[in-house]
Amino acid sequence: FLLFEEADAFLGLEDDSDSPKINPFYCDPEGDILLLEAILNSEPLPPLPNHEQYLPSYKKELKVCEVKTVNSSIDEPPEVELKDLPHHLEYTFLEGDDKLPVIIAKELRSEEKAALIKVLKSHKRAIAWKLSDIQGINPEFCTHKFLMEEDYKPAVQHQRRVNPQIHDVIKKEVEKLLDAGLIYPISDSPWVSPVHCVPKKGGFTVVENEENELIPTRLVTG
């Protein structure tokens, strides 16, 4: 093997094997091939002493997990909560009378609606009724990562007061996220704490507007 000084000299030259600055002894392609064959066929050398001090070691624990098969919405239609739609839209179902709902325009003529439903039924797998129907989705788009290494310390957030009516709204939204699999409960980690919804200070209450939406309103006293 070449010394470092000789290697630096080679790096400083152009790729010209006929250069007078290169010793002809080094230009031996056939010898190089024989040397490579000898290295490949030789027994591996034992590791250097204390090699762990110089080479970082990365240990990854492999866990044996059972393969879980998740049925698609086509094979096992889920129960979907149907919300009120604007006056120009309506629901139609691609499976039976209450399975696999889709939203279409109400003003369509009968033949247009029949043609649209026929196309939708022939491409049902292109529609997602739940997260698992989207094949190949990156979990980073639908999950949140927490830094839970030993070097980090949990941060405490104070409880937030909310109105009892908002408490029910929050509870329903959390239940939807649980059913969709976007979140899951953790009870044995110092990084999380039980969530308690308490009434909000400051004279705020919640009322329904003309569109049946809950909006915060300040109470007028005095």
TrEMBL record:
Transmembrane segments: none annotated. Keywords: Nucleotidyltransferase, RNA-directed DNA polymerase, Transferase. Gene3D superfamilies: HIV Type 1 Reverse Transcriptase, subunit A, domain 1 (3.10.10.10). GO terms for molecular function: RNA-directed DNA polymerase activity. SUPFAM superfamilies: DNA/RNA polymerases (SSF56672). It comes from the Eukaryota. PANTHER family: REVERSE TRANSCRIPTASE DOMAIN-CONTAINING PROTEIN (PTHR24559:SF444), TRANSPOSON TY3-I GAG-POL POLYPROTEIN (PTHR24559). This is Reverse transcriptase domain-containing protein. It comes from Tanacetum cinerariifolium (Dalmatian daisy).
